[in-house]
Amino acid sequence: MPSAPDRNHVALLQHMRPLVRGRADATMALARQFAAAGERQVAVELANEALIAAPGDGEVRALSAELLGQTVPDWHFVITRDHVRNQAYADALARVVTPDSLVLEIGTGTGILAMMAARLGARVITCEANPAIAAAARAVIRANGLSDRITVVNKHSTDLDADADLGGRADVLVSEIVSNDMLSECVLPAHADAAARLLKNHAHVIPARGRVRAALSHDDQKGGRELTVDSGFDLSAFNRLARAQYEIRVRDPRLTLRSAPADLFTFAFDGSQPVTDGRTEIELVSTGGEVNGISQWIALDLDDQGLYENRPGAGQASCWGSLFWPLAQPLVTAPGDVVRVGGYHTQERVRLWRIVE
Q: Class assignment of domain 76-176?
């Protein structure tokens, strides 16, 4: 809770709002002060007001972009250009959404999924915890003439009230709050909460399932990531601080799969699966050649008909990269050799490793 001096400072800033109205530079300066005081919602409002007041002012635009983009991950500008992903969602929504549907979306982002549902005639409630993203999504939705069908609620989904915010429980839940390890955007607890409080019985959930897949692989550039000897000094002990995995674009030719894939974990997103930690082991059968890591990627079963998967390979493209888990020592394998892999997940993380006999 803010201290008394902090509350007094915020109150003083509020008194200044009418004084800067219509003056872009002063409005932007006040926005920065609100942001420094932790009042992100007001800061976003003022930054947008400054842009409207002086749309051609380069300095105002640079300052507003700095403030508005401060909490917006770059991947928002990548995922919406993934046309295969977009079409998979559009097709899945078209199979279940009708003009009588109430659709709940978790994680508005650009608003593209909400607009897909609204285009089918549905009424859509979409929630977005980030005030800068929520404001931008409203502008996008307004520009596309869908404000009468879509309501953007600036809340986390766990703070929504079915009656007050939705006007009743939803017929369809759609979200894209998965990451390249599937879980680190909290898709499991968010969907479990929504299923229990915000959805009708037997509501449609898109995606219905998510699968974490793995295969033996070889990264041609793995050695270039490791410290060895430089300037006459052995730096290899520093490698213990490297992350356990790193990302590789799915079409990068440096990566070669050395086995058929297998599902490491499968998660139901309809709330029917307990949100608990889990552990498993799988066997991967090598096609032969050197193996210096395990590739991990995701597959989304949008429903019983639609699939989106970012499997690595030539000519593939995806907004998600694959994750590469390097082995401590490379293996020289023959076709048919079996490598055992262990996996563990919490609600928010997946990790995997080679099981050494």
A: alpha beta
